[in-house]
């Protein structure tokens, strides 16, 4: 009975996340549609440079956030050692500010002035992202999902409202959007600090114990942080290649293609964040059962999400003519949604659940090495963005299924049962997405998906029973 309550609670939290992330998805879509038109290809490219580097500022937390995530994953909010948190967080933020100053000085060596501006604003985000990450992780692991969900969309609402105003006044300066993005994060951080004031303000502990707590969190979390960083590089390495060796317009176009899937991936990743604390409250002997069930329902949902490719194709081809060259590689990039969804919702939570951070790090490093071995030579020979997309797709796919086979061995699950079917499904999607006749592609894939849905109707019914 207790187990069912935990599952229902987890599913309810997932629904809350889905609803709020649906709002976030709509906001993100509006932003993706407005900014390329408002800024033009060059300024949009610089905006994407800012977004690329800001996505990696989390590395400067040194794993402190991840340590909290792993060490306090079974705590309720009221049971957290708040005095210890207060002092260790103060030390942590002091280190973050020092890192920001050092990075800012190094950025001055960048010869491209516009890139230098974008990078400087990204560096300003280091302490902002650091403290925000601490509070967000605390809310996650203590199942404060409503608060977490509100805070993760609030800055998007602020940014979108101001972008609409800039669009109305026909402003095409990317730096204004960068400034707005940064200050929206500051506003949300201030609200979070007030909401979690008992974590941040009040009497702390002595500095020696604070440093001990800091380094314990770092020592536990740094493997997970490095694993997450390597995981990001599997997808992001190709972007760095294009950003460094192509002009900003080509980079902006490729980044726009990635942005179309990032909207869905952020949505999916948010659900994945609920999975770990939910599973962490269940009996260990049931982990294998839930691995299989979670995989089955997730595969159906994500293959359904791939249908969004076809209306997206229509929109871009009719409204955003300057970006039609992305259709050369967009089906490959869109197929990454399936791969990354499994990593975020199933594989990564189980790595953490089984305390396999080292294995997670190894798998992600292998993924990065494969990405480098495929992307670098193929790009140097062909100078083709398509080859970068294919290399990224293959590296992510290999990493996914090596990870799945490894986890299934630990969990004593038949590891060959679903992998061939899933790979076949991805190939079918890519085949239909590349059809010159869009209607044939759409209806062909829709028919295949409906057959898949009918064949797995028991899994769908079981998921619905969990909900109600």
UniProtKB/TrEMBL annotation:
Q: Which UniProt keywords apply?
A: Cell membrane, Membrane, Transmembrane, Transmembrane helix
Q: Where is this gene product found?
A: Cell membrane
Annotated membrane topology is: Multi-pass membrane protein
Q: Sorted alphabetically, which InterPro entries does this protein's record hold?
A: Poly_Biosynth_Transport (IPR050833), Polysacc_synth (IPR002797)
Q: Does the keyword Lipid biosynthesis apply?
A: no
The cross-references to Pfam families, in alphabetical order and at most eight, read: Polysacc_synt
Query: Where would you say this protein principally sits, based on its record?
Result: membrane
CC terms in the record's Gene Ontology section: plasma membrane
Q: What is the protein name given in its UniProt record?
A: Uncharacterized protein
């Amino acid at each position: 009975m207790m187990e069912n309550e935990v599952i229902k609670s987890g599913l309810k939290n997932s629904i809350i996340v889905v609803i709020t992330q649906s709002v976030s998805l709509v906001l993100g879509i509006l932003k993706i549609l407005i900014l390329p038109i408002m800024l033009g290809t060059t300024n949009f490219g610089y905006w994407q440079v800012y977004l690329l580097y800001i996505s990696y500022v989390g590395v400067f937390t040194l794993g402190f956030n991840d340590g909290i995530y792993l060490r306090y994953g079974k705590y309720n909010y009221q049971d957290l050692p708040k005095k210890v948190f207060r002092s260790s967080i103060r030390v942590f933020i002091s280190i973050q500010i020092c890192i920001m100053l050092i990075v800012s000085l190094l950025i001055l060596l960048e010869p491209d002035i516009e890139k230098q501006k974008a990078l400087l604003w990204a560096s300003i985000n280091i302490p902002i992202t650091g403290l925000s990450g601490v509070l967000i992780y605390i809310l996650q692991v203590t199942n404060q999902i409503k608060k977490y969900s509100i805070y993760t969309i609030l800055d998007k609402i602020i940014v979108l409202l101001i972008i609409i105003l800039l669009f109305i006044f026909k402003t095409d300066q990317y730096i204004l959007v960068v400034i707005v993005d940064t200050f929206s994060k500051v506003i949300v951080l201030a609200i979070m600090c007030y909401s979690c004031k008992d974590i941040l303000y009040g009497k702390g502990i002595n500095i020696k114990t604070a440093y001990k707590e800091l380094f314990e969190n770092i020592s536990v979390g740094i493997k997970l942080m490095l694993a997450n960083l390597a995981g990001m590089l599997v997808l992001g390495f190709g972007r760095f290649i294009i950003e460094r060796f192509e002009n900003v317009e080509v980079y902006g176009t490729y980044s726009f293609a990635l942005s179309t899937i990032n909207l869905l991936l952020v949505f999916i990743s948010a659900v994945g964040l609920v999975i770990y604390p939910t599973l962490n409250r269940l009996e260990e002997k049931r982990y294998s059962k839930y691995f299989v069930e979670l995989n089955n329902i997730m595969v159906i949902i994500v293959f359904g999400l791939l249908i969004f490719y076809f209306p997206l194709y229509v929109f871009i081809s009719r409204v955003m003519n300057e970006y039609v060259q992305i259709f050369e590689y967009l089906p490959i990039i869109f197929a990454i949604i399936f791969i990354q969804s499994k990593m975020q919702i199933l594989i990564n939570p189980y790595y953490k659940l089984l305390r396999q951070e080292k294995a997670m790090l190894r798998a992600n490093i292998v993924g990065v090495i494969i990405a480098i071995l495929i992307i670098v030579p193929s790009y140097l020979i062909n100078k083709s963005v398509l080859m970068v997309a294919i290399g990224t797709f293959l590296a992510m796919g290999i990493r996914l299924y090596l990870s799945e086979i490894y986890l299934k061995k630990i969990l004593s699950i038949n590891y060959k049962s679903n992998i061939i079917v899933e790979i076949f499904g991805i190939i079918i999607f890519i085949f239909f997405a590349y059809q010159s006749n869009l209607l044939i592609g759409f209806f062909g894939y829709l028919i295949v998906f409906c057959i898949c849905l009918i064949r797995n109707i028991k899994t769908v019914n079981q998921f619905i029973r969990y909900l109600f």
